[in-house]
Design brief:
single chain; alpha+beta; Pseudouridine synthase; Archaeosine Trna-guanine Transglycosylase, Chain: A, domain 4; 3 domains; 21% helix
Length: 307
């Protein structure tokens, strides 16, 4: 089966995002399968799976905002910033009120600096940080700017409390929990994490993990496949006439049609029949659109025009 598209699944606990992808690659018997943003093995929730040509759209998933429900455990600090790690220290937890916690959370909303955890997949000198961390090596990490759109306090049952986080790309929720714990005094680790949304895709829409794990029939998944352009929901749209569409598919920048004159930045590009061609970028002050990622999967190779 050569279809391309996006499958929104729930990842279960105790499996890596990579494992979820390899399971689906086997079931779907698809040539290319990837995912739109890693979830830690113990974390659960929305994992977008990109199939065949849609794997070219991975970078645009990274840019989506994401929403998480995180349980923070106060009074315990670990080397991985979650409860799977080695405990570095424990502290008594003071009788904090919801107001105390909300005041601390307020300091983490907006553009904040975050030092990526050692237990992360970032590269340093050709090796992933978590490989170094497992050998007990700690290296300096540069703080990075991440955007926290909102932080809402959920139920409080000390020593734990729950927060709902809406954040931009590159945010480590484990690190956020650890930093909030330091701000409150006793330190903290991430106890439980559920990703409830990636861009427009919510957990309610996701294929439940129990069904994903047991599935053997690829048809079950193929019928739930979303079209590739759903990865770019909310981006402006540009529709090209046949000649311009052909030129774009051959790598050329083409004039932006008058009807789409206000399109800016990254755009979804369609031909006159409404077929999704791929991702373009509007350049030259809005005059032209150049191809950025072209999808070749599901279109007929050549259209024979009537004589």
């Amino acid at each position: 089966m050569g279809h391309s598209g996006i499958l929104i699944i729930e990842k279960g606990p105790g499996v890596s995002s990579f494992h979820a992808v390899s399971h689906l690659r086997r079931v779907l018997r698809a040539g290319k399968v990837g995912h739109g943003g890693t979830l830690d093995p113990e974390a659960t929730g929305v994992l977008p799976i990109l199939v065949n040509e849609a794997t070219k759209l991975t970078p645009y998933f990274v840019d989506h905002d994401k929403e998480y429900l995180a349980t923070v455990r106060l009074g315990v600090v670990t080397d991985t910033q979650d409860l799977s790690g080695t405990v570095l220290r424990t502290s008594p937890v003071p009788a904090l009120t919801a107001g105390d916690i909300e005041a601390a959370l307020g300091r983490f909303v907006g553009v904040i600096q975050q030092v990526p955890p050692m237990f992360s997949a970032l590269h340093r000198g050709g090796r992933r940080l978590y490989e170094l961390a497992r050998q007990g090596v700690e290296v300096e990490r540069e703080p990075r700017e991440v955007q926290i759109h909102s932080l809402a306090l959920g139920p409080v049952a000390l020593p734990s409390f729950t927060i709902r986080v809406v954040c931009g790309r590159g945010t480590y929720i484990r690190t956020l929990c650890s930093d909030v714990g330091e701000a409150l005094g006793p330190g903290a680790a991430l106890e439980k994490l559920v990703r409830t949304r990636v861009g427009p895709h919510t957990l309610e829409d996701a294929f439940p993990w129990a069904l994903v794990r047991e599935a053997r029939d690829p048809a079950v998944f193929w019928e739930r496949l979303l079209p590739p352009d759903s990865a770019l929901a909310g981006r402006p749209k540009v529709t090209l006439e046949a000649g311009a569409a052909e030129a774009l598919l051959h790598g050329q920048a083409v004039p932006v049609p008058a009807a789409d004159a206000d399109a800016r930045g990254v755009v979804r590009v369609y031909d006159a029949d409404g077929d999704f061609l791929g991702v373009g970028r509007v350049v030259e002050g809005g005059e032209r659109v150049k191809p950025e990622r072209i999808l070749h999967g599901d279109r007929p190779r050549s259209r024979v025009l009537p004589a």
